[in-house]
Design brief:
Layout (H helix, E strand, L loop, with lengths): L1 H26 L3 H6 L4 E6 L4 E4 L1 H7 L3 H4 L11 H18 L1 E10 L5 E12 L5 E10 L1 H34 L12 E7 L9 E7 L5 E8 L3 H21 L3 H15 L8 E10 L6 E8 L4 E4 L5 E4 L16 E7 L4 E5 L1 H4 L2 E3 L5 E3 L1 H12 L4 H15 L7 E7 L10
Antiparallel strand pairs: 1-2, 1-5, 3-4, 4-5, 6-17, 7-8, 8-9, 9-10, 10-13, 11-12, 11-14, 14-17, 15-16
Length: 421
Amino acid sequence: MSGDVTGGRGGGDRDSVDDRAEFSALLQESAEDLYEHAPCGFLSTRMDGRIAKVNTTLLDWLGYERDDLLGRRHFSDLLTVGGRLYHETHFAPLLRMQGEVSGIALELKAADGSRLPVLVTSKVRTGSDGQPLLIRTTLFDARDRRAYETELLRARKEADRERERLQRLATTLQRTLLPPALADVPGLNVSAYYHVASVDEVGGDFYDLFPLAEGTWGLFLGDVCGKGAAAAAVTSLARYTLRAAAVYNPDPVAVLANLNTVLNHEYNGVDPRFCTVVFGLLTPDPDRGGFHITLASGGHPPALLMRADGTTGSLPTPGGQLIGVLADAHIATTAVRLTPGDTLLLHTDGLTEAHVHSVDDREDRYGDDALLDFARALAPTTASDTVDAIRDLLDTFGSGVEDDTAVLAIHVPLPSGDELP
């Protein structure tokens, strides 16, 4: 048994010796063989570009015999028309000035007329006296890279087309969540604006103004948490629930309570959804002119009231809770009379939460106080002028507006001839 083991071990030793000998022989290959069969193409030319030496690898790539090139052709002769133009106007002058150029993408023309994309590096070799003698060029096969770049370009174009398609879809969906036009209320001017923060996603802001029973109108403005398809679904549900609930019982508290019940029942699982919303009931005052408005708020930013005499203030509804979170949310209310010349502004928090640069170049939120000062500077004003001013304000924020913003302004005109210019 010991003899078999010794014999086996001895055979292994012989194999190991043979492997080492073969490996050593490979290391001792001639430099010429390494040059000829390198994984890249090698080319040596005189200073005028005439080919003086070329390796087998490059000959195989191009399908030429050595005698076809040596002393007969210039390096530029191997290039495509565009490549020769680039060689004469850029490559060769840069090589003369710097003595070396590297990583230049060119195309070679093979003997059969096919094209071979390569990455070219050339270096000028000088003699002992410092005078240039020849140019040594290394060429790497870039076919795989070209195929990769082509596929990458194709994928990018496809991604761009898909992004454009999704943007069109998002824009179309967004439009379905907003009224095509606000109701025409006799004795009242209204204006609204929706600022889209990102064209790639559907936002969750919504608003509407619509008739109810004779002589009354309902309005609302809200903001659903989140973005995208999920937010759009909640927005659609909220908008149509509010309109339906207002027809059934127009009391603002009852309207928001109905919406709270629907959202709380529909989204009370692992992915809760909620919104802030303000609902208003408008009724005209035929005796004194103007309108009475009752506002109910579920966690929404306070409305701003700009009076005809220039005074401006907010209409706070403290204690109003988010709609859809709790089974029995507290809903806050306030009431106000809009007299001729008055303007009421409703807005979502995308406006007040926009990023702005402060005096010391820090990035801050625009904030409720800044918006109130802005409204004071506008008053007295009209609905359209208010919305136009806010549109311009949002434009000044640029990319600082990270969330969609909706604004709705209602204005009671002054008697004919007394309206603001």
